[in-house]
Design goal:
With 383 residues, this protein is mainly β. It contains two helices and 30 strands. The strands form seven sheets. It has a five-stranded antiparallel β-sheet with strand order 1-29-28-27-26, with no helix packed on it. Strands 21, 22, 23, 24 and 25 form a five-stranded antiparallel β-sheet that branches. The two termini are 28 Å apart.
Length: 383
């Protein structure tokens, strides 16, 4: 089940600081036959462990689901959420079995409920900081859904009774790329600094849509927070540690866009475009598709599909970006998503299907675990 590569030797400092013996991760997948494969054809949800001292990965499938391409986990560690990325989009809620009471072993999942995601092909989930609301981005329909939760993190009674979200927000518009921007495509949900506004990156309209967040987690439409250059195709984004800049992946123009962020107004002004070359400043092939972006200290790590790269950009003191070290080359992968866990960059490679640990500092491949059609990786709460 595993494919091994030589593990990086940990320094004495790294070994001494790595108190946990392992960190649990959750991995969502696609069906190898495609996102619209029949129910039951999916590769399910995997529980994977990371050894912080060596980067070694181990794991297994713990639940079946048709297309659980994105996951979120409750801060208690006892509830897991998964999209069902197909035309009749769904959100499923699982409880994580108590290891002491689970004969199947640590991390067994029990499905509690499945409801509509409020649109087609849900591709991202965001759990509110107070864990009382779940937000879902539906790519094909371009809609944003709001699903209230109870105090334990399960779907609220009104969601279960309705079989779907408490609120669904649509949008209109298009972009210059007729093949990818014919309509809105909600791709990512994030809270703006301060927590008063929620943002949705819309790949189809080159916009960051803005919603005002009420005390109960419900939303009110609040216009457009930022407009990206035409044809950029904003996919995922991350904020600087001080909240003064946002970094947005342009899936369609193969670049990272920097927005100077006004926290009070919850608006962004475009101030820089940095192409993702390999190696910089070379151009990427026209087929390349940047995916997820993650901040690791003063570095931004960006997966680039169809080129098998994880690119690195450095955040300067003024918040602008510069090219960092050469990108990490993966062996035939399709890096769709990544998470930085205990200093390791853990990458979900959709094709040919693997989870890969990149060593702190060097970002060299330390270990590879075969996981069919891996689509996302999220860390289980520590402790």
């Amino acid at each position: 089940m595993t494919e091994h590569t030589p593990a990086a030797e940990p320094s004495a400092t790294t070994a001494a600081s790595s108190a946990p013996t392992s960190r649990a991760l959750w991995v969502g997948t696609y069906p190898e036959l495609g996102a619209d494969a029949p129910t039951g054809a999916g590769e399910g949800i995997w529980r994977v462990t990371l050894d912080p001292a060596t980067g070694r990965l181990a794991g297994r499938q713990v639940a079946t689901a048709p297309a659980p391409s994105f996951l979120a986990v409750h801060p208690s560690g006892r509830v897991l959420y998964a999209v069902g990325e197909d035309e009749a989009g769904t959100v499923s809620v699982f409880t994580v079995a108590d290891p002491a009471a689970a004969p199947e072993g640590d991390g067994a999942l029990v499905r509690q409920a499945t409801v509509s995601s409020g649109g087609a092909h849900p591709c991202h989930l965001l759990l509110a900081p107070d864990a009382r609301t779940l937000y879902a981005a539906n790519y094909s329909s371009g809609t944003l859904a709001v699903l209230p939760l109870d105090a334990d993190g399960h779907l609220a009674p009104e969601v279960l009774d309705a079989g779907g979200p408490a609120q669904v927000f649509g949008h209109t518009g298009s972009g210059p790329r007729a093949d990818r921007q014919e309509s809105p495509h909600a791709h990512f949900v994030v809270l703006a600094p301060g927590g008063a506004h929620l943002l949705v990156s819309d790949l189809g309209t080159d916009e960051l849509r803005r919603y005002r967040v009420a005390g109960d987690g419900l939303l009110t439409e609040d216009g457009i927070a930022a407009r990206l250059p035409a044809g950029a195709g904003p996919r995922h984004l991350v904020f600087a540690a001080d909240g003064r800049h946002a970094y947005v992946v342009g899936e369609l123009d193969q670049a990272v866009h920097v927005l100077a962020w006004d926290r009070d107004a919850a608006t962004g002004e475009h101030v820089q475009r940095v192409p993702l070359g390999s190696p910089p400043p070379a151009e990427l092939p026209s087929t390349a598709l940047p995916s997820h972006i993650e901040r690791d200290g003063d570095l931004l790590l960006v997966g680039v599909r169809k080129t098998d790269l994880v690119a690195a950009l450095r955040i300067r003191p003024d918040g602008l970006l510069e090219q960092a070290a050469p990108p990490t080359e993966l062996s035939g992968g399709w890096p769709r998503h990544l998470a930085v866990v205990e200093g390791w960059a853990v990458v979900a490679e959709q094709i040919p299907g693997a989870v890969v640990a990149l060593a702190p500092g060097s970002r060299a491949v330390a270990h590879t675990l075969r996981v069919p059609s891996a689509a996302c990786v999220v860390a289980h709460p520590a402790g």
